[in-house]
Amino acid sequence: MKAEARVKRNEPLPGPRSGPLPGPRPRSGPLARVTREARPFLRARTGTVLRLAGWSLLEFVQTFLGGYGVARALDHGFLAGRPLTGLLWLAVAAVAVLPAQLATRGVFGRLADLVEPLRDGLVRRAVSRALSGALAHPADTSVRSLSQVTHQSEIARDGWAGLVLTLRSFVFTVAGAVAGLLALEPRLLLIVAPPLVLGTGLFLATLPPMAARQRDYLTADETYAAHAGRTAADLRDLAAAGAADRTVAESRALADDQVRAARSLARWSGVRVVALAVCGRFPPLLLLLCAPWLLRDGLTPGALVGALTYLTQALAPAVHALMTMLSTVGGRLLVVLDRFTDAPPPPAEDSPEPQAADEPPPARHTTPGATTPEAAVPVAELDAVTFAYGPAALPVLDRLSLSIAPGEHLAVIGPSGSGKSTLAAVLAGVEQPTGGAVRWHGRPVRAADATSVRVLLPQHAYVFTGSLRENLRYLRPDADDRSLAATIDALGLDPLLTRLGSLDALLEPDRLSQGEHQLIALGRAHLAAPPLIVLDEATSRLDPAAEARAERAFAALPGALVVVAHRLGSARRADRILVMDGPRTRCGTSAELLRSSALYRDLAGLWEPDDVSE
Ligand SMILES: Nc1ncnc2c1ncn2[C@@H]1O[C@H](COP(=O)(O)OP(=O)(O)OP(=O)(O)O)[C@@H](O)[C@H]1O
User: Which intervals of the chain are annotated as region Disordered (predicted)?
Assistant: First the structure.
């Protein structure tokens, strides 16, 4: 069933074939991709486009009469000594505004037929993709799909509506102005056309690179945000694993990428401003410069003023509106539409099958409580430790004393908020106690000893882009292949290794399940084999059998193991159990706790029977 549900890489998205932007993602720029995919959408709506054009003709008439009326009012009216005729022509120019208002109503009526199908198609596509993604990546939650169904499809709809309105208005205004200039004096076109064509050409030339830069910028921004989010979530693990420097270097490189992308975008924006100036400001300037020569050569003053009316009242605002629209909303629209043309994510291989945990627990290297000189010194010790998250806060740990022998396996249990994670952090030296003392090997905790004495693994596992070998050897760079193989075998990492192909194949954290993240982090700690390992929900994404296997693998190491446990089975595997219960906190074997701790009796009764079975 699983194999059937897979989605092939670059397979066309399921969903409406006639909907907008169908098909796989070709290897071209975002503008070319979106244009190619938009063509069939527009072709299917030729009738709507023609009706929009029909209404827009009224805008053509308004523009044409705006300049022509002024020219005639001057030449045939006021300058010819016929003020009434002049006023009549001005009235014609003014009345032409009324049908244009009618056009606006008609245009808005038709607009919905062009805009809503786009939105519906995008939503259908995003939902299809989310469903395919969910089948291919059952463990993933797709924030992107949610954003596409809601936010991004709305941006696309609004952007598309704005673009249609502006583009339509631009085309008919320019056509009206050109027709007016031709009617007044064709030579006028020769003067204003070159800067118009040059500016428009320059502007159009900036579209593809701007679109690509905009996408680069967005990608750099998203990559940085994703990295920052992961870093924040894994902060404790990063600190515990001594990966701070590496993380800072990665963040810096990503921030540099972002700055580079922003600079490049800004450079192209500069070119666009120049295009706007050439297109909008140069034509009236040129016309004024040529005015003396034109007037001497027979151009009437009315035609000159009419031409200036076209350039300043119609052309310049239309060019400005179009360029502003394209560079703001247009850019966003392009990027959003391009995202919808993305191929669905490649399928995850089948997750590793849960490992059977039927092998007997391996022999322990060190017996807790043994009387060797080494065992006499606890690997970690809390001496009347008090810890509060602020001067006025109630202490989470209140004069807690605890001693962990080398090789001992301790499980920590308790209700939510009872302080299990806090204890793990204090024990691992990540948090400093407000009172009492924490000692490792009988000595006060020193930051310098951190990674050599203990590894703390919280729920969010730290996995970086690189090979499996690099990830596993992170805390022990000199580990040889035999040790690596032993760790892989002990933790059940073989299915992942088989899928990757080799220890040196590139491992991309985003393509791994959360369980695989945890297995890699566990493998790293296992290979390092420090004197103390603290697992704080570090196996929460593993099934009970894989969790049991991991805990047995750690228990087989010579170091001590402290596990914040959420299953009774996990607690029962330990040599001792610490029940966090405020002033009634108790520590002992399961049999002892059944007698001494009411909370343990309750928890043991509440936990599922199959938790105990393995
Ligand atoms: N960074 C923090 N700042 C302030 N209070 C905190 C902080 N972290 C934990 N606490 C509080 O300290 C108490 C103990 O939290 P802790 O996370 O150690 O409990 P827990 O037993 O591990 O809980 P859970 O099983 O839900 O993870 C809780 O009341 C919690 O709200």
Answer: 1-34, 341-371
- Residue of 235, 420, 535 with the most ligand 1 atoms within 8 Å of its CB, for mutation: 420
- Number of domains into which the chain is organized: 2
**Per-residue model confidence as pLDDT tens digits over 441-478:** 888 887 666 667 777 777 778 888 889 999 999 888 88
Q: Which atom of ligand 1 is nearest to the CA of 422?
A: 18
Q: Which of 317, 340, 363 finishes a domain?
A: 340
Statement to judge: residues 85 and 148 lie in one domain: yes
Can you tell me which residue has the tokens 């990295």?
227
Burial of 466 from C-beta contacts in 10 A (0-12 / 13-18 / 19+): middle
pLDDT in tens, 279-303: 888 999 999 999 999 999 999 999 9
The closest residue, in CA terms, to atom 28 on ligand 1 is: 417
d(CA 421, ligand 1 centre) in Å: 7
Cα 183 to ligand 1 centre (Å): 80
Q: Do 146 and 41 share a structural domain?
A: yes
Ligand 1 center to residue 388 CA distance, Å? Answer: 10
Q: What is the ipTM of this complex?
A: 0.97
- Domain of 413, CATH number, reads 3.40.50.300
Distance between CA atoms of residues 378 and 600, nearest Å:
25
Compute, in angstroms, the gap from residue 230 CA to the centroid of ligand 1.
20
pLDDT digits (tens, 9 = 90+) for 522-575: 999 999 888 899 998 888 888 889 999 999 999 899 889 999 987 778 888 899
Distance from the alpha carbon of residue 594 to the mean position of ligand 1, in angstroms: 26
- For residue 170, what are its two tokens? 């631009």
For the domain that residue 318 is a member of, what is the CATH number?
1.20.1560.10
Q: Whose CA is nearest to atom 4 of ligand 1?
A: 389
The protein residue with its alpha carbon nearest to ligand 1, atom 31, reads 417
DSSP string, 446-508: -GGGHHHHEEEE-SS----SEEHHHHHGGG-TT--HHHHHHHHHHHT-HHHHHHHSSTTSEE-
Q: Which of 324, 340, 356 is the last residue of a domain?
A: 340
User: Does any domain span residue 24?
Assistant: no
**391 burial class (0-12, 13-18, 19+ CB within 10 angstroms)?**
exposed
pTM, full prediction: 0.47
Q: Please give the residue range of the domain that contains residue 212.
A: 30-340
Least confident segment among 263-272, 321-330, 446-455, 568-577: 446-455
Residues with CB under 6 A from ligand 1: 389, 396, 414, 416-422
Q: Probe ligand 1: pick from 422, 427, 578, 580, max atoms within 8 Å of CB?
A: 422
